[in-house]
Amino acid sequence: MIPWPPDSPLSAPLAQRPGLGPQRLAILAKRGIHSNLDLLLVPPVMYRDRRQLGSLAEASANNDLVFIGRVISARQGISAKGRSWLSAKVADGPVTADLVWFYGIPYLLKVVTVGRSLVISGRVEINDRGSLTLIHPEIGESETAMENFMGVKPIYRPYPGLPQAVQKRSISLAVDDLAKSPRVLPAGWLTERNLPDPVDLLKIIHQPPNNPGPLPPPKGSRAFHQLATFELMFWRLVILAEKNRRAARALTRNRRPDPAVGQKFLSLLPFEPTPEQLRAAAEFNQDLQRDQPMNRLLQGEVGSGKTVVAGYVASLILALGRQVAVLAPTELLARQHYDFLAPLMAQLGFRTAPLTRTSQIKARRETLAGLRDGSINLVIGTQALLSKPVTFADLGLAIIDEQQRLGVRQRLALTRKSAGLDLMSMSATPIPRSLAQVMYGDLDITAIRGTIPGRQNTVTEVYPDTEAEAVYERFFQMVRQGERGFVVCPRIGELSGAVPDESGSELDPLGQEMARPGPGEDPTDPLYNLNLLASPRERQPRPGRDIQAIEALIREKAPDLRLGVIHGRQDPALRHKTMAEFRAGQLDILAATTIIEVGVDVPGANLMLVEGADNFGLSQLHQLRGRIGRGGGQGLFLALSSPQPGEVATARLKALTSHSDGFTLAEMDLQIRGPGEELGLRQSGWPVFRFVKLPQDLRYLPRALDLAEDLWPKLPDWPDLEARIANLAKDLAVLPEEPDAALGI
């Protein structure tokens, strides 16, 4: 999110580095590392503090120490389990210590020889008898190693298969190139604001100065925090640049709609709009009376009636002779919108068509042709709408539902399909205003408070995994008495390697990739094979039964009940058929993954049981809870935790039982869990923050906004920087290429 200068040593490909052949380049490319800059944007995981040379006489238990020791004995052997080891006794004056290694024995035998003095760094262990031991200490020959050995040393996460010596050398060469790189920001502005340039900050992170005082971790350093502030500043500048671009492209034609058309739409509804819906509709109507393109987010609880407001706004634009596109994250939600809006729009004389990847080829071609010639007024679909073949005669309004599940990239891609486009976003996940400033800094926000009148608050109960059998039996008994219910689980299969559907909502069971020594790798490195450094894709699968296990359990314990199963890896036609049967009352229980989180409206379903509920954030659980009790009946939400949920997860589930207001839960979720997937920050459509961590770094937002507001009007004086920011905004609007075959064209 920082517009680093192009055509500089930072952008040089790693293929030009010595010691990086095709195999090693492939290892780095797998982690998104292709250039010097990519290499430097991965900070050290820790620093090794070797600023002071000490002695064994001052050693204390479990503290790091750097000292010079003379080898007085060394021996090697093989353990009962066949593991090689090397032990050496070293002396520092009258005090001795034992050094032990289990890896890298061939290399160590060449260095750890009797009579040789070594520089030694490691953590000292002291047993009950006062003996000192260091396990896997780092060493260097004292005559030659002092200059390079001492100081603050960055420690990097090892990449399996890439020798650590090669990794460190490549990073060191990239750091040296920083001195030849152009600065990111104008020198005069930096001097005026008393700020360092991001290039200088990047060097500090990889080569911290040997200043006295406590040594912070890399991500806790002042340099890292300053880079986070700059990243937020540039994100704000990108938002301003995009807003300015859209305003410049705004059409001069009359865009002030007739409110009477919207009133006619509301009169066609089979129910009376609520005061909150009417208030929200009025705010959108006011936006459409202005010259600037509308860009407003509508937030509201599940069941608050956001689709009614969307239909109202769509009718206003359609009456002007322009087209409207509704983008939903899943086919289920797109189909629900189509079923609701198409009949109403037909009564107003407007033609509506669906467009998803599973639509029939003939229908898709007809829809594409109708959008091009303007005979189709309203299109409702999934991300298929963003494909290049989709063009419009005159697109006037884009409505994005469940905005947080898509992202900035999709939103910007839609805005570039038409000049002067009005934009309406909707979200059932309430977003705290502080976070909304980062995520939706270019949007105005309208909130619908409350739900549809007559709808009761759902009762929420949380149970430990040990009570699963009793909870299921209670669930089955209520279904036998006439209720219908969902059973939700966190993943598709234990070993299935599931691929998410368009919603991206299902949890993929991930195996743990253990670091193994590669050729030339130094296994004596203190970070070698440390599981605590495992990336998110290297953690153990999340607990909670998978969909296959749930289906087997229900069929065994309740064979008399009619069961349907849906998840993202099924054929969409089967999924829709099962969903329709459940909605029609032909099924008693629907077992599903979180694919039902949005776009599912079954008024007769009042029960939900969630397996492994501690796997989800508060906002996501609240979304799931909103799927039941929609027909006026009393909803019951049963949450089963995993065997070992942890303190944070327990606090999250407790909050769910205490609060029914989504806005309150969103604030709590932000503090307990962070933005998480349900706010869309991990979706491909959101910009990748390399230094910002939310919500913790929201404390830097006021400073970042102040810097952005100061820099924005001065950008014309620095056309190179202005162009880089504009290109950053343009790049964000480019979606990954998809073959036209995805639309069957």
Q: Can you walk me through this structure?
A:
The chain is α/β, with parallel strands linked by helices and 745 residues long. Among the domains are: 52-149, Nucleic acid-binding proteins (OB fold (Dihydrolipoamide Acetyltransferase, E2P), Beta Barrel); 259-448, 3-Layer(aba) Sandwich (Rossmann fold); 459-507 and 542-660, P-loop containing nucleotide triphosphate hydrolases (Rossmann fold). Helix content is 35%, strand content 17%. The protein has 23 helices and 21 strands. The strands form four sheets. The chain has a seven-stranded parallel β-sheet with strand order 11-12-10-13-14-9-15, with helices on both faces. Helix 19 (618-625) links the parallel strand 20 (605-610) and strand 21 (636-640). Helix 8 crosses helix 22 and helix 20 (646-658) runs antiparallel to helix 21. The longest helix is centred in the first third of the chain and has 27 residues, at 222-248.
